Amino acid sequence: MAVLELTDISKHFGAIQAVNGVSLSIERGEAVGLMGDNGAGKSTLVKMIAGNFLPSSGTIRIDGKEVTLHKPVEARRHGIEIVHQDLALCDNLTAAANVFLGRERRRRIGPVSVLDHAGMAKRAGELFRDLKSETRPRDLIRQMSGGQRQAVAIARTMLADAKLVLMDEPTAAISVRQVAEVLNHINHLKAQGISVVLISHRMPDVFEVTDRIIVLRRGRKVADKRTENSSPEEITGLITGAIETV
């Protein structure tokens, strides 16, 4: 059974048709690259999956059950997490505090309830070790590299017991070494049975970690191919319109 299934999803803003009749499914533990030029509809489609926008038409099913996602908190209840391009981290807090932001653990000291900083740091450290990341729980976010910041954002999704993680340009504006670290994080999520949708303009990254590639152009799906059966040249042609559809 597919973790996520979209059937004939469309979204318009007045006279502007941002997404038009897109259908797709994502299996458990599968990484799918979502590619397309600026304005192709990628962000709008992902925002509907994440609960930011209601579709104008079409259906969304999670684990075979039709759902209506009015807001992001409802998507998270269904196991859908998003790692934004800006990561949405608090620079003045530690890695552990960011992992648990909004989900803080508490413990009692007599009649008083206090934050369990030690317990949160321990659990965050376990998540970073699972990700094979050098990130340390008590380090401040502002002292971290781009790859370490990505590890914090991804650890937060693992803490939430995600089924599907939507990743928006996770390898943009970071070093080659940090890109490798983020791609390893994606492979780790797949190994844990967590599905990933990777939005990226970086063709080598998409071909390295995805199982399938979906291409949008002008709001429509023009390709849905096994990565191993395609090529960067073909995907580029589909994105630009040099190749109409496959």
Brief overview:
Helices cover 32% and strands 28% of the residues. Strand 1 (4-13) and strand 2 (16-26) form a beta hairpin.
Write up what this structure looks like.
The chain has 246 residues and is α/β, with parallel strands linked by helices. The chain has a domain at 4-91 and 163-240: Rossmann fold (3-Layer(aba) Sandwich). 32% of the residues lie in helices and 28% in strands. The chain has helices at residues 42-49, 72-77, 95-99, 117-130, 146-159, 176-191, 203-209, 232-240, and strands spanning 4-13, 16-26, 31-35, 57-62, 65-67, 80-83, 106-109, 112-115, 164-168, 195-199, 212-217, 220-226. It has a 6-stranded mixed β-sheet, sandwiched between helices. Strand 7 (106-109) and strand 8 form a beta hairpin. Helix 5 packs parallel to helix 6. The chain is globular, with a radius of gyration of 19 Å.
Shape: globular
**Rg, nearest Å:** 19 Å
The stretches of 5 or more residues where confidence is low (pLDDT under 50) are none
Proportion of β residues?
Answer: 25-35%
Main beta sheet: 6 strands, mixed
Oligomer class: single chain
Query: What's the helix count?
Result: 8
The end-to-end span amounts to 25 Å
Order of helices and strands: EEEHEEHEHEEHHEHEHEEH
Helix amount: 25-40%
Number of strands: 12
pLDDT averaged over residues: 92
How would you name the CATH homologous superfamily of the domain at 4-91 and 163-240? P-loop containing nucleotide triphosphate hydrolases
> Numbering strands along the chain, what is their spatial order in the largest sheet?
6-9-10-3-11-12
The CATH topology of the domain at 4-91 and 163-240 is Rossmann fold
CATH architecture of the domain at 4-91 and 163-240: 3-Layer(aba) Sandwich
Helix/sheet category:
alpha/beta
Q: What is the top-level CATH class of the domain at 4-91 and 163-240?
A: Alpha Beta
Organism: Amaricoccus macauensis
InterPro entries: AAA+_ATPase, ABC_carbohydrate_import_ATPase, ABC_transporter-like_ATP-bd, ABC_transporter-like_CS, P-loop_NTPase
GO molecular function, one term: ATP binding
Domain ABC transporter: 4-243
